């Protein structure tokens, strides 16, 4: 984004547990209707404008999702 003059100020993630779709089952090599976590991530510019999105799907049984949240003083 810096190459096109956009400064990213923050990202927002919205995790949602659900069952895998048929396509996800095939791509991830998991069982039919396995539980996954679907994460919708949106990056925002320093002007507050959404500039990029990502959809991430991870099998619930194969990983642990951990967040680190910095606290300003």
From TrEMBL:
Entry-linked Pfam families: UTRA
PANTHER family: GNTR-FAMILY TRANSCRIPTIONAL REGULATOR, MANNOSYL-D-GLYCERATE TRANSPORT/METABOLISM SYSTEM REPRESSOR MNGR-RELATED
InterPro entries: Bact_HTH_transcr_reg (IPR050679), Chorismate_lyase_/UTRA_dom_sf (IPR028978), UTRA (IPR011663)
SUPFAM superfamilies associated with the record: Chorismate lyase-like
Name of the molecule in the record: Transcriptional regulator, GntR family
Record domain UbiC transcription regulator-associated: where: 3-60
Species assigned in the record: Streptomyces globisporus
């Amino acid at each position: 984004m810096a190459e096109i003059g956009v400064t990213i100020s923050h990202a927002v993630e919205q995790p949602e547990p659900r069952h895998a779709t048929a396509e996800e089952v095939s791509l991830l090599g998991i069982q039919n209707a396995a539980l996954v976590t679907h994460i919708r991530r949106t990056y925002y510019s320093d002007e507050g404008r959404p500039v990029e999105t990502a959809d991430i799907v991870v099998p619930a049984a194969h990983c642990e999702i951990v967040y680190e949240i910095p606290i300003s003083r």
